[in-house]
Structures are given as structure tokens and as C-alpha cells.
Amino acid sequence: RDIGSHWAKSFIEKLTRYWIVKNQDTYRPDAPMTRWEFLALAMRALRCNYDSENLEKYSSSGFSDVKKSMTVDKYLGVALEKWWIEGSGRFRPDDAITRAEAVEMVMNILKPEETNKKEGFLDLGKLKKSTQELILMAQSFSIVWGKYDGHFDPHGDLTRGEAAKIIARSFLRE
Question: How many whole angstroms separate alpha carbon 154 and alpha carbon 135?
């Protein structure tokens, strides 16, 4: 088991209990989460159980770096149709997802009502205004948190442990 006393252990175990994560023995909580892995976790958390027959009704994603024969293509088709992600050009499925990209995806899925936003993070200034607002909204719902001294690190890679926490706090509230 590689989660031992890791700070995200309870979140990873929760995802395992709900069958969102299949094997917590080799979760690698400090490794970066890829864009495709994060979308897959979110869809599993939402119980988007699309078998191959149901997936066929969704148009392919049209991303140039995703082959139509790949399962990720149909999942991207679902996500695009539901406006969970925006797409044109490339999806970069094997690239690490940034903290800001993960928040954008989650908040686009949740589509929350406006809320009282908390104080801002010090390092959001170079992001689009809409992304800044989504991050502050996610913070107000306790979905995300800062890293240090009032910084969010929006361009930093999201770790698999951080992803477990975001998915659990977004979709598995008890």
C-alpha cells in the first residue's frame, strides 16, 4: 500500500469504497494526475457508466491528439456535449492536469449557483476572469484550498492525492 499515512488516505479510501478508484494499493498519491485520468474519475463519481453501445451515440471528440478508436474519445464526446470541457484542437490526455484545469472541469460539471466567494488567492491574476471566479467559488464550497501563504498554484500539476480530495469533496458529500 502506498497511501500508508499519506494526508489524502481518507479521500482515496472513500473513492475506493465507491468504486471510483479500483486499486488503492498502487495509487501513487504524490504523482501527477493526467487530464484523462481526472475526467475518468469525475465520470465514475457521477456514475457515468457508459458501456460501448451507449458510448456510440456520442459523437467523437474531434480532438486531433485522440484517436477515434480510443475509449477516451467517446468519454470526451460526452464531456463536450454536456459542456463539462471546452474543446478545439488538442486535449492532451496524457499531460498532467493543472490545479486550475481540474477546478474548471469540476465546477463546469457541478454548475453551482453563485455564492459568497472567500478572499482571493494571491496568484490568480494572470488567469481568465472566469477561471478566477470558478476557483474562488470552489474555495467557498471547500472543494479546493490554498497551498502556501495565500497562493493556489493554478499552473501546478494536480497530484493524485489532491485529485482524490477534489473528487470526494465535489461529488461524494455525506
Answer: 9
pLDDT at 50: 55
Please give the residue that has the higher pLDDT: either 118 or 45: 45
Which residue bears the cell 475518468? 40
Average pLDDT over residues 35-54: 76
Q: Compute the average pLDDT of residues 153-173.
A: 94
Model confidence at 67, in pLDDT bands (50, 70, 90)?
Answer: confident
Q: Are 174 and 17 in contact (CB under 8 A)?
A: no
Q: Which residue in 116, 117, 136 sits closest to 125, CA to CA?
A: 136
Place of cell 471528440: 61
pLDDT of residue 120: 80
Residues 6+ apart with CB under 8 A from 11: 161, 164, 165, 167, 168, 169
